[in-house]
Write a structure and sequence with these properties.
- The chain has about 400 residues and is α/β, with parallel strands linked by helices.
- It folds into 2 domains: about 210 residues, Glycogen Phosphorylase B (Rossmann fold), CATH 3.40.50.2000; about 170 residues, Rossmann fold, CATH 3.40.50.
- It has 15 helices and 14 strands.
- The chain has an 8-stranded mixed beta sheet with strand order 3-4-2-1-5-6-7-8, with helices on both faces.
- Helix 1 packs across helix 15, helix 2 runs parallel beside helix 3 and helix 8 crosses helix 13.
- The longest helix is centred in the middle third of the chain and has 23 residues.
- It is globular.
Length: about 400
């Protein structure tokens, strides 16, 4: 019987307690490769995670970190991970974003030649460039940008030392070459996926309408972190124009982040606060139901390495309105599965209003979106492509 590969995965945030794109990818790949790969995930002690656990056959081990601000959490996690290096035995090491740069330095210092895979979702140098252009109303956000600039430098150094680099889109691969001067022969593109059995068309609205208001003809849904690059202020501005023709429209915001209070205040300034429902983070069991309650999924992000929420919305047969930037046009087919417009609140409003006024167009784009992601983006495809990367890396052992 062939021995399973042992892979150690590093991520600052515990993947079973966070539900961002990085964490979903870790859990879904490990679950699907359980018969071929023995995966152990090492993550920070955030959200009270302090005891090892096993989820779907994957061991998740805590490494001390803070739970204050991601850059600080990440720095402490890397120190803890480095101190544990002698106890972490694996055939292959994989770090997401900059969650393993300290461990990589230890490997090089010890002249340990075991392969190290750097998985990059969105290139931090690109995210930094977009973030400093956007609205950062608080000292905390300005401080976060300083940390991001520093982490981008670290990420660049890690790409130089890694055996292979995995990223999620052609856009991110291009940025790695242009911004970090990475040898493109080291890059492997493995897009994220979506669970088509979980995110699918269904009738769930009646059970969740009390969370978003019952007397609304239309629902516009946003899902994502409340950070500058997600561009939610564009949607708030667009709402002023949308409700002129569609007064019974509700804008549902799922997600949390440092801009939440500012965005709530901004919706009041724009006179549309009664049209917005800020739900914060919702239970995973409720997320697919919220997608099903939406008429249109809006993603006003100004930078995306790929965008898992775009896949989830289309898998649920919902038309997407988004900005035609970064990797978004790799996962949304303009005029087929959604509408892509330039980053502007008026353009966003016009596209959403167009869909709200045309039920048949919404349904047609929804069906096309479901077909599109079903063929090209699944966690099964993602997992098998990652197994090929692991197998390739194993040749360095």
């Amino acid at each position: 019987m062939k021995r399973k590969l042992k892979v150690a995965v590093f991520n600052t945030q515990p993947p079973h307690l966070y539900f961002g794109g990085v964490e979903r990818r870790i859990v879904e790949i490990a679950k699907r490769l359980v018969n071929e790969v023995d995966t152990t995930v090492y993550s920070g002690t955030k959200k009270g995670f302090n005891k090892s656990t096993v989820i779907s056959g994957t061991a998740i081990v805590p490494c001390f970190s803070t739970d204050v601000l991601y850059p600080l959490d990440n720095w402490v996690f890397n120190r803890s991970l480095s101190a544990m290096s002698v106890d972490i035995g694996a055939d292959i090491y994989e770090a997401h974003t900059v969650s393993g740069y300290g461990f990589l330095k230890v490997l090089k210092k010890q002249k340990n030649s075991k392969p190290f895979i750097q998985t990059i979702h969105g290139v931090l140098a690109d995210e930094y460039a977009q973030s400093v252009k956007s609205r950062s109303p608080s000292l905390r956000m300005k401080l976060s940008n300083v940390f991001m600039w520093h982490l981008a430098r670290i990420e660049k150094e890690a790409t130089k030392e890694a055996t292979l680099i995995v990223t999620v889109s052609r856009y991110s691969a291009k940025n790695l070459v242009q911004l970090y001067d990475v040898d493109e022969t080291k890059i492997r593109i493995v897009p994220n996926g979506v669970d088509h059995q979980r995110f699918k068309p269904a009738e769930y609205c009646e059970k969740v309408k009390d969370r978003i208001g019952e007397n609304n003809k239309h629902v516009i849904l946003f899902v994502g972190s409340l950070i500058p690059r997600k561009g939610l202020h564009f949607l708030i501005e667009a709402a002023k124009h949308i409700i002129k023709e569609n007064k019974d429209t509700k804008f549902v915001v799922v997600g949390d982040g440092p801009l939440k209070n500012h965005l709530i205040s901004y919706s009041k300034e724009q006179g549309v606060s009664d049209k917005f429902a800020f739900l914060g983070n919702v239970p995973e069991a409720m997320l697919h139901r919220l997608y099903n309650c939406a008429d249109v999924f809006a993603s006003p992000s100004i930078q995306e390495g790929q965008g898992i929420t775009l896949l989830e919305a289309q898998a649920t047969a919902k038309p997407v309105v988004a900005f035609n930037v970064s990797a978004i046009n790799e996962v949304v087919k303009n005029n087929e599965t959604g509408l892509l417009v330039k980053p502007d609140s008026y353009e966003l409003a016009n596209a959403i209003s167009r869909l709200l006024s045309d039920t048949s167009l919404r349904e047609k784009m929804g069906r096309s979106g479901r077909d599109f992601v079903s063929k090209h983006f699944s966690w099964d495809i993602c997992a098998q492509n990652m197994f090929q990367v692991y197998s390739e890396a194993a040749e360095w052992i």
